[in-house]
User: Which sequence fits this backbone?
């Protein structure tokens, strides 16, 4: 009769064999892989969107080839705010999440704010500075998509969708906006920045406006704008106020919001939405379950291709024109 230790050893060996088999199968597939499996991706191009200044960080666009010369379309659902991870340099490097602004056959495109180098890649700032140090033809280690396979992003549909993006959070907002335009009756975007010098991606935003997106800006350092508050949110999203029953009211059931920024910014903004009398039910929620590759009957890429100048086709080519927010606007919230 086998001893207790022998049975335990057989159990461990069985689990190990299962893991090796699963890992071999999972990594046999081309393209990006999730579950913190990083693969080298060659940098195809690097472009400056916002120049660095004493009070402003640089923002750059990076286009990477998929690993191993894979020419398929990356399985990253931009409409659900999915992201990838990029590993920094050095021993035991830090990995940071980034939302792609475009996925095309054989390519994936990131827009990254460049923070000063810190800790040889062992901090979020170190990852962006590592990317900035790359030259065309060099490689970065990428993994994705995320959330991982046993977690998914659930979409809570609504007739009206409001998106609040802070700074470089516009990268996630672009994909989500494209995904919502064919499904919601009204989609609005409020992009909060310090001033006009931080604007970029105007070609992409113009394509979204042509497809029906309502775009507004909040400049905290211009026209006495100050910090974004409930009043600016009410002006940007004139869909309320709701009654005292809050999210149980009929109006609240029609409206969804997504805030893209730091965790602190998200908490503060959802609280401001509530104090502004706007329903603060969230558009996207993480939940456990198997990730789906399609939204309804169509893939995310297919729904993009029904709109002009879609992200999967048009976000990568050429330089992005300098932003042209309305110069004569006296209010801190400006319609594009």
Assistant:
């Amino acid at each position: 009769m086998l001893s207790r230790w022998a049975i335990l050893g057989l159990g461990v060996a069985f689990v190990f064999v299962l893991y090796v088999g699963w890992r071999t199968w999972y990594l046999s597939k081309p393209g990006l892989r999730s579950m913190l499996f990083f693969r080298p991706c060659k940098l195809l191009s690097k472009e400056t969107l916002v120049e660095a200044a004493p009070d402003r960080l640089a923002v750059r666009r990076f286009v990477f080839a998929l690993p191993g010369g894979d020419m398929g379309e990356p399985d990253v659902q931009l409409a659900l705010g999915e992201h990838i991870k990029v590993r920094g340099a050095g021993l035991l490097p830090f990995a940071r999440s980034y939302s792609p602004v475009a996925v095309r056959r054989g390519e994936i495109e990131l827009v990254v704010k460049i923070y000063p180098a810190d800790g040889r890649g062992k901090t979020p700032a170190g990852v962006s500075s590592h990317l900035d140090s790359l030259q065309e033809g060099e490689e970065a280690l990428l993994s994705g998509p995320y959330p991982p396979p046993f977690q998914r992003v659930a979409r809570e549909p609504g007739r009206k969708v409001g998106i609040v993006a802070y700074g470089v959070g516009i990268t996630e907002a672009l994909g989500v906006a494209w995904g919502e335009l064919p499904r919601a009756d009204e989609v609005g975007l409020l992009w909060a920045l310090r001033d006009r010098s931080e604007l970029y991606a105007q070609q992409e935003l113009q394509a979204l406006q042509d497809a029906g997106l309502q775009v507004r800006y909040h400049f905290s350092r211009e026209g006495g704008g100050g910090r974004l508050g409930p009043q600016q949110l009410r002006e940007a999203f004139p869909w309320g106020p709701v009654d005292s029953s809050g999210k149980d009211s009929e109006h609240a059931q029609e409206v969804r919001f997504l805030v893209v920024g730091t965790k602190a910014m998200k908490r503060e903004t959802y609280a401001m939405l509530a104090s502004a009398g706007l329903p603060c039910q969230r558009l996207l929620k993480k939940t456990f379950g198997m990730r789906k590759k399609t939204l309804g009957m169509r893939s995310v890429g297919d729904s993009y291709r029904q709109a002009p100048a879609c992200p999967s086709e048009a976000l990568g080519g050429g330089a992005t024109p300098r932003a042209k927010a309305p110069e004569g606007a006296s209010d801190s919230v400006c319609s594009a």
Q: What stands out?
A: The two ends are 78 Å apart (CA to CA). Residues 294-332 have pLDDT under 50 and may be disordered.
